Amino acid sequence: MSAQVWLGLRNTPPSNMPFDCVAEVHSSGSSTTVLVVDDEPLIADTITAILIAHGFFAEAAYGGEDAIRVAENLRPDIVLSDVMMPRMSGIQMAIQIRAALPDTRIVLLSGQASTAEMMRLAAADGHEFELLAKPIHPEELIMRLREPQ
Amino acid sequence: MMPGIDGFGIIKEIRSNPATATIPVILLSARAGEEARSEGMEAGADDYLVKPFTARELMARIGAHIKMHKLRSQLMKEEHELRLVAEKAESKYRMILDSISEGFIFVGRDWRINYINDQAAFIAGFQSRDLIGKTMWGAFPELKHTVFGRAYRKAIESGEVQRVEDFYAPINRWLHANIYSTPEGLSIFIQDVSEQRRQQEQLLTTEKLAATGRLAATIAHEINNPLEAVLNLLYLARISRSASPESIHQYLLTAEQELTRVSQIARHTLGFYRDTSVPLDIELSRILEEVLSVYRSRLAAARIEVVKKFDPVPLIHALRGELNQVFSNLISNAIDAMREGGRLVVQLSALEHDRRNGIEVIIEDNGCGIDSIHRKKLFEPFFTTKVSVGTGLGLWVVKQFIENHGGTVSVWSSVDSLDHGTRFTIFLPSDTMIATKQHLM
What would the pLDDT profile of B263-307 be if each residue is shown by its tens digit? Predict the structure, then answer.
């Protein structure tokens, strides 16, 4: 007999992830905090669940404007974000977060080849971000996030 | 009768020298009678007086002959001058026809080639002198099975100007002919347009490649996202050692649904560039549905409402790849015009237009609209208002492909703040005449 337990450190699990019960833990560890941003909830939520399973503290946002707001409160160590999003692109969001939180590491995740071009344009303006390609195996993602910048 | 040389001898001398040949000669002879007179006239005399004659008679005859001679000289001079004018005019026209860059052939109503300039002869691959006098059908036996041959006959029969542009297989070139009918025959102006055609084909290929690239980018997005989700879901199902069977089941079910979506997209988009060189009987509603399916995510992301109004319409004999690209270009443009949301209407109906039966396709958005200055140049190659994106060939290609099927495309647009939007109306005739395509590349 087994059950899946959510060990929430400051947040609640994404609603569609099938965890059997939720317990609160009152000590905050020194785990890395990640804000996961993607307009596809399935992607944002599965990445969040995977990060949590590997000991990260993770929260999901589903758009650029939301993410900026959450980031200001959460003050994450890493922002992991999709690039192609409606209304505000991941790069535009990243530029704003970098301005508000200069020490936050920003990793962009994209399924489009054209992203490399957009990154180059952003770099020309002095904005440097990391780029990973979708689809990415979860363990490779974890490895990259654990690597120093 | 004179010593030394007689009258007949003098006449002979006078007549043989061109300078004096026309001077009237009156023979004065003692020999009378019809026979003598006839002999004298046959020798070349203009008149014959029998001695004795009166001075008055002589003067009268001389006067008459001088008058006639003057008249004759005058007429000859006029005739000579007229001939010079005619020759000069003809030589001027020949010079003009020889100097124009178009080939020119003049054919009589008996189909004989009366005149052919060097350009035309060059195009035909003959010397002009070898063609003069031959009939068109004799000189160019393959002509009668071609569009050009039929156009020549039509011009003669109807008297109406014919304009034809097609690939003329016997010499492996694209030709453009303007054929004018006159009471005397046909004036045919011919140009070799193979080079223009080749450049046009090249532009179409460039745009096709660019469209493929854009499509690839759309596909990448459509496919990479579901694959990322599936990868994560299967991974979570695997590593959750303590997860309940229900939760694992949920992960796997979701993964399955995402893979189904991916395979649908792959099927539709790979179908895009199937063999496009053979016309098939096509259901237009299916092509429109496929294109809308490929753009589904982009439409949702831009929050565009899609309204489909598909009447039952007959199948149409057409090139699938070209129609796919037409609708893809138009829908992609509509999405670009409605970044902040809007409505896309796609309408399909059977219609009669200009006394031809066919199908009308309308693609309408309520986006920003196209202002009148840009609308004029909308279908020109390389015209674009998009900064650093695209080739500017998308709408030009739409026009080429639709006209290739014998159809028409038109645009209505408004930038008015209360009523903005753009509507493209395509008419495809049921009896599509797909222009001959030769692979010039």
Answer: 776 766 655 555 456 788 889 999 999 889 888 888 888 889 999
Contact (CB<8Å) B301/A86 = yes
Residues of B in contact with A5 (CB under 8 A): 242
**Average model confidence (pLDDT) across chain B:** 85
DSSP B256: H
Lowest mean pLDDT among B108-112, B282-286, B395-399: B395-399
Q: What is the DSSP letter of B112?
A: B
Q: What is the pLDDT of residues A78-121, one digit of tens each?
A: 999 998 887 888 989 999 999 999 999 999 998 876 777 777 87
For residue A86, give the chain B residue with the closest CA. B301
Q: Which of A140, A16, A90 is nearest to B257 (CA)?
A: A16
| Contact: B244, A20; criterion CB under 8 Å | yes
- Is A134–B246 a contact, with Cβ atoms under 8 angstroms apart? no
Hey, do B100-192 and B198-429 end up sharing a CATH topology, with the first three levels equal?
Answer: no
**Contact criterion met (CB < 8 Å) for A134 and B227:** yes
Contact B212, B270 (CB under 8 A): no
CATH superfamily for B7-87 is Response regulator (3.40.50.2300)
* Nearest residue of B to residue A83, measured between CA atoms: B221
What is B198-429's CATH number?
3.30.565.10
CB-CB neighbors (< 8 A) of A85 in chain B: 301
The minimal CB distance from B229 to the residues A5, A39, A42 is found for A42
Q: What is the pLDDT of residues A25-60, one digit of tens each?
A: 434 456 899 999 999 899 999 999 999 999 999 999
Q: Which residue of B has its CA nearest to A43?
A: B229
Cα B308 to the center of its chain, rounded Å:
37
* pLDDT tens per residue, range B4-34: 778 788 888 888 888 888 888 888 888 888 8
Q: Do B243 and A53 touch (CB under 8 A)?
A: no
Q: Say yes or no for a CB contact (<8 Å) between A112 and B243.
A: no
Closest chain B CA to residue A6: B243
Are the beta carbons of A69 and A26 closer than 8 angstroms? no
The answer to whether A111 contacts chain B (CB < 8 Å) is: yes
Is A119:A107 a contact under the CB 8 Å cutoff?
no
B100-192 CATH choice from 3.20.110.20, 3.30.420.240, 3.55.50.30, 3.30.450.20: 3.30.450.20
For chain B, the first-to-last Cα distance in angstroms comes to 91
pLDDT given at position A17: 62
In this prediction the pTM is 0.50
Q: Note the helical H segments in B240-283.
A: 245-272
Chain A nearest C-alpha distance from B391 (Å): 16
CA distance B140 to B153: 14
Kindly report the CA angle at B226 between B220 and B230, in degrees rounded to 5? Answer: 135
